[in-house]
User: Fold Phosphatidate phosphatase PAH2 from Sesamum angustifolium.
Amino acid sequence: MKVSHVDTNSSEIPNAVKFLSDSSGLEGGKDVTNGKVNKKIVRTLTPTSEQLASLKLKDGKNIVIFTFSTAMLGKQQVDARIFLWRWDARIVISDVDGTITRSDLLGQVMPLVGMDWSQSGVAHLFSAIKENGYQLLFLSARAISQSFHTRRFLFNIKQDGKALPDGPVVISPDGLFPSLFREVVRRAPHEFKIACLEDIKALFPADRNPFYAGFGNRDTDEFSYLKVGIPKGKIFIINPKGEIVVNRRVDTKSYLSLHALVHGMFPTMLSSEQEDFNSWNYWKLPPPAIDV
Assistant:
């Protein structure tokens, strides 16, 4: 596969980087034909540090466009986003179905027929968290084929003039049926989520955890967040009534009531967590065990 850096200032999409690919590339090594040595780039889902550096990414969101050609379809384009964050970023993770939407199944169906099925107050809460300096990461076990519709749904949510803040939408690279089998039959969406979050965590310094809090709607979401080091007091589970459960106890009734506490629970990056809202004083969670 041939890949070339074409344009960093695309007129089609601002702040864009384009790649060209031919459909005849082979995986890895060198292709020797007619006495000539043609270098081939290995197909991979993970770019190297050198490849990322060559993109000259800017802070925040960058758009990349993959351009390829096939004999049947001709020239095709696929776009994606690369987010560049500081090493000391604090990341708040949110599940999508049942967390931003009001239910798992209808949350996928209703937006397709033009109905708003989002949780009341979620845009205001997440916008306030973003304004305090945190980065939002949207994580879903949906299949990669649903990525376009998922992104369009998320960033078209409007609630009293507020929209969801921009952030990466991380989706399973598997196809539709493997994703459904894992989530519906095996009931193990956490397998993908934990592996994905561990990969993201490994990008940051080993002596700090970039994940600050997590929102979900299932026990598997709580399990995933605990596995990557998010404390129990910062894991918010949304039950079917739209109530927020922390440590298996309903403490706030909705996203709207949590929004009133946002500056205490998600203090600005220049300040520290208020003692009134730490894990012990507010959530009554026991302090972590320390080996002596």
About this structure: The first helix runs from residue 49 to 54.
